[in-house]
Amino acid sequence: MNSTQLAGYRKIELQVRAGNSRAIGLYRSIGFERTGRVDKHPLGGDAMVTFARALP
């Protein structure tokens, strides 16, 4: 059992700018899926989209 499982975490989430297609491709390639959540970036520009992945 790893430390995230011992701490009770079941998934990991991250946010990336909607226009950052290279990062989005990387995250999808390692199992992250878009959750549908979209937030304004505090500094403006592209919105932030949320991706999540279940932990083993």
**Which class best fits the helix and strand makeup?**
alpha+beta
Oligomer: single chain
Series of H and E elements: HEHEE
Q: How are the strands of the largest sheet arranged?
A: 1-3-2
Estimated share of beta-strand residues: 35-45%
The number of helical runs is: 2
Share in helix = 10-25%
Cα separation of the termini: 9 Å
Q: Radius of gyration in whole Å, from Cα?
A: 13 Å
Largest sheet: 3 strands, antiparallel
InterPro entries: Acyl_CoA_acyltransferase (IPR016181), GNAT_dom (IPR000182)
Domain N-acetyltransferase: 1-56
Protein name: N-acetyltransferase domain-containing protein
GO molecular function: acyltransferase activity, transferring groups other than amino-acyl groups
Describe the structure.
This protein is of the alpha+beta class. 23% of the residues lie in helices and 38% in strands. It contains 2 helices and 3 strands, in the order H-E-H-E-E. A 3-stranded antiparallel sheet has the order 1-3-2, covered by helices on one side. Strand 2 and strand 3 form a beta hairpin. The chain is elongated and about 40 Å long. The chain starts with a helix and ends with a strand. 2% of the residues are buried. The model has no long low-confidence stretch (mean pLDDT 91). InterPro entries: Acyl_CoA_acyltransferase, GNAT_dom. This is N-acetyltransferase domain-containing protein.
What is shown here, in short?
The chain has 56 residues and is α+β, with helices and mostly antiparallel strands.
